[in-house]
Amino acid sequence: MKKILGIITIVLLSACKEKQNSMKEEIVLWSPYNDSVEVAAHADHEIERMQYKLIQSKILDKNEVFVPLYSEVTKLSEERYHALAPMILEQNIFTIRDHIEKEALTYEELVLFFLHRIYKYELNNTTTLNTVIALNAQIVDQARELDEDRKMGRSPKIKHPIYGMPILLKDNINTAGMKTTAGSIALMDNEVGDAFIVSNLKKNGALILGKVNLSEWAYFLCSGCPVGYSAYGGQTLNPYGRRIFETGGSSSGSGTSIAANYAVAAVGTETSGSILSPSSQNSIVGLKPTIGLLSRTGIVPISSTLDTPGPMTKNVVDNAILLSAMLGHDAQDSASVEKDFPGILSAGLHPENLGEMRLGAFAELIKTDSMYRTTIENLKRAGAQIVEFTPPDVKMDGFLSILNIDMRNDLPKYLKNHSRPEKVKVGSVEDVIHFNNLDSNVRIPYGQSLFEGIIADTTSNEKLLEIKANLEKNGRLFFDTAMDSHNLDAILSINNYHAGYAAVAKYPALTVPMGYKPTGEPISLTFIGKQFSEAHLLRMGKAFENNFKVRLMPKGYGE
């Protein structure tokens, strides 16, 4: 009898499961639309670099991303969402934590708040930014566990501030439970474990909310193609002007998602400008750290010489917190440093005194950019000592060869060490080129001239070492001439204007919202310092943020 009952139970459970799966399949949250009309309608208003051929991905079905958590998201009522908004929207991590400690907010509600926004805007084809391309299906359960631990007194007495905070990751950063595609169809089934920095985030209690779009292969695939485009994720759009302003790249999704308040913070990566540019274009705070401060293990590479991950946030306080939560020596990364750099976590709480700062300003930018000029004058009036300078004319010959040869060598190593051959059928740049050519209309609508250039580059290993040494020397000369002779704390730039020099010098750079052009396009002030001066840059950035509060939420994404 027991055996019969057991069989009946199994049959019933199986039937229920089939019914649930059937119901799940019937849910349609999003339908593709004819975006060619939208592309044509805006063709006369876009700059040449933004001549989009398509908006939607031809590969990604948003229902697969959004259906699994739909039942959870619908549990948050509109009334409760609006009640939560003042505690979360545009608030820094310490403020959010304070509301949790006072039991006005739970970790579950924090997660559902951001999911609510993502579903509201990303499933509407008139507001979608094409930015969120994967979600952690366990995120709500993980948040509930933290609430239960807190209720039962099991949560750590000393918590890193990142504990319980929902974080989005650029989709070239390995993350268990979600594919890591680098935006390429060739990697769409790339199942991996956690990157070193993701493991550190989880150890510190962060909740990984999902993955965001990027410029495919970190914008090292096609020449002149729109930033923010990937064959896997489609065209990322800027919330300050969809189809009007560039998103910046290659960490496009990290920038647009945080500008739209889809998470507490995001992680991007940079080789040359890929954090600074999208942070500037989306009016958020972005930090490109010194090479070696953060591990690169488990991140799809361009260049082991120049690559680094970095934090992208709405404010300087959160930037320091996120950076701190990713720190740690990685024996597998030859550039990773063992030395501790104190003061990073608390940097956002201790702004520098503007009157004690000595900052270098480019004479040419003062002459040609009115907002930069006004900002420099405002800093002077606030007490900062500004030294105008003209940098030495240094050569950047061979920069592209660093990217070419490093990518040719580093990508196969990544694929060998992290990808599963039964899931990923490419093992080299040549393999990817061949794979893309098999269906060029879908896989490479803008071509792959940069990948082809990688194969064509004949630079020898000896010549490459010479190029790297010369560029590092020239990059440092570009900044150090003024910094050393005038005893400067930092050099002030705009957006990613001097990102290439900072990249080869291996210097950190912090960009902070500076204002908006008459068109509404964001523009940012960038602080560039010497190696491992992140804490100092953050303290200076916080002083600027406090004295010149300029960040505005993008219209249409504030409700």
TrEMBL record:
Residues annotated as domain Amidase: 109-396
Superkingdom, taxonomy of origin: Bacteria
Coiled coil: none
Pfam family, one: Amidase
PANTHER family: AMIDASE, OS04G0183300 PROTEIN
Protein's name according to its UniProt entry: Amidase family protein
Organism: Maribacter confluentis
